[in-house]
From TrEMBL:
<keyword id="KW-0812">Transmembrane</keyword>
<dbReference type="Pfam" id="PF23489">
    <property type="entry name" value="V-ATPase_su_f"/>
</dbReference>
<feature type="transmembrane region" description="Helical">
    <location>
        <begin position="55"/>
        <end position="75"/>
    </location>
</feature>
<dbReference type="InterPro" id="IPR056552">
    <property type="entry name" value="Ribonucl_Kappa"/>
</dbReference>
<feature type="transmembrane region" description="Helical">
    <location>
        <begin position="12"/>
        <end position="35"/>
    </location>
</feature>
<keyword id="KW-0472">Membrane</keyword>
<keyword id="KW-1133">Transmembrane helix</keyword>
<dbReference type="InterPro" id="IPR026770">
    <property type="entry name" value="RNase_K"/>
</dbReference>
<protein>
    <submittedName>
        <fullName>Uncharacterized protein</fullName>
    </submittedName>
</protein>
Length: 89
């Protein structure tokens, strides 16, 4: 029995979300790594966070959320490729 899967978002929106999520993952992983290493530029001021290790963990958690968006939107793009253009879903 085939599974009838319909797209939730448009192909353009899925592609845009995937690209922005990949950039978000890269940036958040870099920030998480820098906060984890207590880089002075990010943690040396009095207005900076008191616990950079906690900030590092939050950056990694946000990167995981963006990873879920990459998976979801990537699957949406695959569903759009499955149906030819102009087919009524």
């Amino acid at each position: 029995m085939p599974i009838n899967i319909r797209p939730v978002v448009s192909a353009g929106l899925a592609g845009c979300c995937t690209i922005f999520s990949v950039f978000g993952i890269v940036i958040l992983l870099a920030l998480g790594s820098l906060y984890g290493k207590h880089v002075e530029v990010l943690t040396g001021s009095t207005k900076d966070p008191k616990d950079p290790d906690h900030v590092s963990k939050l950056c990694y958690a946000a990167a995981l959320i963006y990873g879920a968006f990459v998976i979801f939107c990537g699957l949406q793009m695959a569903v759009h490729r499955r149906y030819p253009r102009g087919v009524q879903l």
